[in-house]
Design brief:
This protein has 245 residues and is of the alpha+beta class. The chain contains two helices and 21 strands. Helices cover 20% and strands 35% of the residues. The strands form nine sheets. A four-stranded antiparallel sheet has the order 10-9-16-19, with no helix packed on it. Helix 1 runs antiparallel to helix 2. The longest helix is centred in the last third of the chain and has 36 residues.
């Protein structure tokens, strides 16, 4: 329950983080002590329909990222891009490694590259002298010079994974590939199951505050109930010891 509170707290802390995907905690029960097996013969010709087993508690099985779509906010800024549907932006770190994100708040750096807030490149360059930049639904990046002439600067590719929940969170709105996520598949927005791009908008976190607060109360109450159950067990054992004495 403490782990659940920690995860909920992180979800609530990132309620205004661009492209953030909430996590949920999945629990698993522990091994059981089998006192009596189901179906054993309790008397001549009579078998027990159920057995007797004592559980040994619970453990945290995993935390799963929920990739439902967050609310889309109109920013009016032409370099802000939201993904409508499946897919992630593939960005390149300064060391040349690929990372993935749903945060489409892009900037133009001093060398004319389209980059994230952390300076990771998106694969689009030559924007330094552009008077205006437009990003189409298919990821096509068009630039306009002082005369209004239009030219293409490239296309923003989207990435997808067989199991996006298996991606590793690295902070700074970035995810990295793992064996559990499967190999990356890149493509053009709007094709092969990938979503389209919407310029001038940003995808916010998919955290629902009401749901998280309800879950927080449930976790707190469950923590209290478990504490009381342990205390009751201790009191019963103390009483049993007093009887022996």
């Amino acid at each position: 329950q403490q782990t659940m509170v920690d995860v909920i707290a992180n979800n609530l802390a990132n309620v205004n983080t661009n492209g953030f995907k909430r996590s949920q905690v999945n629990f698993q029960d522990l091994l059981y002590t089998q006192i009596t097996e189901p179906g054993v013969e309790v008397s001549s010709g009579v078998t027990a329909p159920v057995g007797l087993e004592i559980g040994n508690g619970v453990r945290v099985g995993d935390t799963t990222k929920v990739f439902s779509r967050g609310e889309v906010e109109n920013t009016g800024r032409n370099l802000d891009v939201a993904i409508q549907g499946n897919g992630l932006f593939q960005v390149t770190s300064p060391t040349g490694e690929f990372r993935y994100t749903r945060d489409g708040s892009f900037q133009i750096d001093g060398t004319g590259n389209l980059v994230t807030a952390m300076g990771y490149t998106v694969g689009i360059s030559g924007l330094g002298d552009a008077q205006r930049v437009e990003i189409g639904a298919d990821g096509t990046v068009s630039i306009f010079d002082a005369t209004g002439a239009r030219s293409s600067a490239g296309t923003i590719q989207l990435a997808n994974f067989p199991n996006p929940a298996g991606l590793r969170s690295e902070g700074n709105n970035l995810l990295s590939e793992t064996d559990a996520s499967g190999s990356v598949v890149t493509g053009t927005a709007g094709q092969t199951g990938l979503g389209t791009l919407q310029a001038g908008f940003l995808e916010k976190a998919n955290v629902q505050m009401v749901t998280e607060l309800v879950n927080l109360i449930k976790a707190q109450r469950a923590y209290e109930m478990n504490s009381r159950a342990i205390r009751a067990g201790d009191d019963m054992l103390r009483t049993a010891n007093d009887v022996v004495r």
